[in-house]
Amino acid sequence: MNPSNFVNKHVLIIVENLAVPFDRRVWQEATALKESGADVSIICPTMPGYTARYEHLQGIEIYRHPLPLEGDGALGYLMEYSTALFWWFFLSLKIYLRKPFHVIHGCNPPDLIFLTALPFKLLGVKYVFDHHDANPELFIAKFGRKGFFYYLMLWLEKATFNVADFSIATNLSYRDIALGRGGMDPEKVTVVRSGPDLERMKIRPANPVHKKGRKYLVGYLGTIGEQEGVDLLLEAARQITQQRQDVQFAIIGGGTSQEAMKALSRQMNLEQYVDFYGRLADEPMLDVLNTADVCVNSDRPTEMNAISTMNKIMEYMALKKPIVQFDLKEGRFSAQTASLYADHTQPGDFAQKILDLIDNEPLRAEMGTFGYQRVINHLSWRYERQKLLNFYNTVLATRPRPSFFSSVLRLFSVSPKPGKAISKL
Question: What InterPro entries has UniProt attached to this entry (predicted)?
Answer without folding.
Answer: Glyco_trans_4-like_N, Glycosyltransferase_grp1
